[in-house]
Write a structure and sequence with these properties.
Chain lengths: 217, 450
């Protein structure tokens, strides 16, 4: 078994197992935590609708906050949208998704994927520089922040290297790319990558609470 | 009278009512060793953890954007005032003790134990530099209600005996004497009688039956007693059957702000029982921000079941009776701006009510920018105005408000919170500023069409 077979064979299986088990445990733990019911008289109905609205409305800051948060928002959107384009639009990734889900769709043109990946990498590097230099981010940051950055950046960087055939043989670069993705999967349930799921509950809860009060969500 | 009360006598000569004894320090209450303080702080923080707050603790991505909404950070650019950082030691404790991978953190020592020095340091962040105004909760991309978490952290700090002495003192005074600022039932009755004479109106106290129970803030009773007369004039003009009750006349809840749930419950139940005793269908709360949150949104939780009456902030009540045509008011030729109390507007949802009232008064309203739900806090909420060592920071933060008011071009600032009003007036004196803050309720009462 060569490195590539190992990466997309047993390594991927173990990583997926840890990812799924960790994901379930972390979400189940939250679900099993005691729920506090708000019994105050609501000002208005529609709190569930308010919760669902909050899931989407918090994708964009309220107008008075936009100027002061512009740089962080641009970086965050570039990274998130860039990753979405690369993962969901790249032909090899679609083949991978099809291999375990049976779902398939038309890939985006390679030039779009390569551009998105390069832009994402640039945004990731900028975000690291910002995190290390901005007084607030520097103070808040811990191991999770930097390690999450690393396991997110490595698949992007190694993917670009594999496509460009830079640094080593394609098979080796592809194996490293898949291994880096495996590390990403393993780390996912333990660190802040979990925000991909938890953000739904967090925004929804706040949306429900403040909609009941008739307050801004 | 309690030991704390004797140690810190009231200072009623200043604009800002609190206790005497200003000097920089980290305060402690009670006799216990450091380990016990740490244990209590974290145990009581964790005790109140529920699905909502646990979700919040798990959701933060350290984006730091909450800093940009916080008046303390924006005024000073000191990163330690980043709202989520104020919870950092509690987040660490959560991760180590209660999070899904807590066993993992403990096994490998990945989250260090807290030290008493850290808790002392965090006292300033949890109390002196957070008014729980909730602006950070509105900006958070993850939707974390940071203000709620700060309130929960205060529970831990209180149990560990680690809160600012002045706040502890006024909270204990509220528990022992019925008012944080010396407005005992006897004092209140005297003031009510005085205001009845002053405003030539009837002030009903301890009526056996009433449709409406009214409560006052200690700040109003002691510093702005015209609020008593103004409330009476409005209710009498409407022909309402209303009363104050001496077993539940005080709406402020310093137990809540200090972080003591038992004291919070005690204060809340006094109003609830007073309303039940006189058969009130409605409790009208005074111009006080946190009093509104304490009864309107947290009252039922303290009572353990839904409240058997409705609760309105005075601005909501005025908006309702004016909108329905029951109360007629004269037009006032005045240019004003309006300061939204955070707990009534941003966190209470009653943002439009005062604007309905101001429109009926025909006021030329020059809104601040930002305004309404996004308005900057006065800097005195959450008990901060009582803490002497926080004065310098509070004045620094208030410069944001001064800029807003100056830019509005209005001479007068109206508001519906007496705590905001005393913070304004205290800062006004400090800066020798020429802008007044006045009560919307009192303006209405002065302009009722008989």
């Amino acid at each position: 078994m060569d490195l590539l077979d190992f990466a997309r064979g047993p390594a991927l299986q173990v990583a997926t197992l840890i990812f799924v088990a960790g994901l379930i445990w972390r979400l189940l733990h939250l679900y099993l935590t005691q729920k506090k019911t708000d019994i105050s008289e609501p000002r208005q109905g529609g709190s569930i609708g308010g919760g669902i609205r909050a899931i989407f409305s918090r994708f964009r800051h309220h107008e008075p906050f936009r100027q002061r948060t512009r740089n962080g928002s641009i970086l965050a959107y570039t990274i998130h949208i860039g990753l979405a384009i690369v993962i969901l639009g790249g032909a090899p990734h679609i083949l991978f998704i099809e291999s375990f889900s049976g779902l398939s769709w038309s890939p985006m043109p390679s030039v779009v994927i390569h551009f998105a990946a390069a832009l994402t990498l640039a945004a990731l590097l900028t975000s690291l520089g910002r995190r290390m230099s901005h007084p607030v981010l520097k103070m808040l940051s811990n191991f999770d922040d930097y390690f999450t950055w690393l396991v997110t950046t490595l698949p992007v960087a190694t993917g670009l290297m594999a496509v460009a055939h830079v640094g080593a043989r394609y098979e080796l670069l592809l194996a490293i790319h898949i291994l880096s993705f495996n590390v990403f999967l393993i780390w996912f349930p333990f660190g802040k990558l979990m925000h991909s799921f938890i953000v739904i509950g967090s925004r929804y809860t706040t949306g429900v609470t403040f909609t009941r009060r008739g307050a801004k969500v | 009278m309690s030991k704390v009360t004797e140690k810190y006598p009231l200072d009623t000569s200043e604009q800002r009512l609190t206790v005497k004894d200003p000097y920089p320090r980290h305060d402690t209450q009670g006799e216990m060793d450091e380990h016990e303080r740490l244990r209590r702080a974290m145990a009581n923080f964790a005790k109140n953890m529920n699905r909502t707050t646990a979700t919040y603790m798990e959701a933060c991505v350290h984006c730091g954007q909450c800093a940009e909404a916080c008046h303390y950070y924006v005024s000073t650019e000191d990163p330690k005032y980043t709202p989520i950082w104020k919870l950092e030691i509690f987040k660490q404790a959560y991760k180590r003790e209660t999070s899904p991978f807590g066993f993992f953190y403990r096994m490998f020592g990945l989250k260090r134990d807290l030290s008493i020095e850290q808790l002392g340091e965090w006292q300033e962040l949890i109390y002196d530099s957070c008014t729980m105004c909730g602006r950070c909760s509105l900006i958070c991309p993850m939707g974390i209600d940071i203000a709620t978490l700060v309130g929960q952290a205060r529970h831990g700090m209180f149990k560990a005996g680690l809160i600012p002495d002045e706040l502890h003192s006024v909270a204990q005074r509220a528990k022992d004497e019925g008012s944080p600022l010396g407005a005992t039932a006897a004092v209140f009755e005297e003031r009510a009688e005085w205001m009845a004479d002053e405003h030539e109106t009837e002030v009903y106290v301890d009526e056996d039956e009433a449709d409406i129970l009214v409560a006052m803030s200690s700040i109003e009773i002691m510093k702005y007693p015209d609020a008593i007369g103004a409330t009476a004039k409005v209710l009498n003009a409407l022909g309402e059957k209303w009363t104050f009750r001496t077993e539940g006349y005080e709406a402020t809840n310093f137990g809540m702000m200090a972080g003591n749930t038992e004291w919070q419950k005690y204060a809340t139940l006094k109003i609830i029982n007073a309303a039940i005793n006189c058969g009130a269908k409605l409790v009208v709360l005074p111009e006080c921000g946190h009093a509104y949150g304490a009864l309107r949104w947290q009252g039922a939780a303290m009572y353990g079941k839904p409240l058997p009456f409705k609760v309105q902030h005075i601005s909501e009540f005025l908006a309702d009776v004016i909108s329905s045509g029951r109360l007629k008011v004269k037009k006032v030729d005045q240019t004003v701006t309006f300061h939204d109390p955070c707990q009534v507007a941003r966190r209470g949802g009653a943002t439009e009510a005062p604007r309905v009232v101001m429109e009926a008064l025909g006021l030329n309203l020059n809104e601040m920018s930002p305004t309404g739900d996004y308005n900057w806090c006065c800097g005195g909420g959450g008990g901060v105005v009582t803490i002497h060592r926080a004065d310098k920071l509070r004045y620094k933060v208030f410069e944001l408000k001064m800029e807003q008011v100056e830019a509005s071009g209005a001479d007068t600032v109206l508001s519906t919170c007496s705590n905001c009003r005393q913070s304004y007036n205290d800062a006004k004196e400090h800066f020798q500023w020429d802008k007044n803050m006045e009560s919307l309720l009192e303006l209405v009462a002065e302009n009722i069409v008989e």
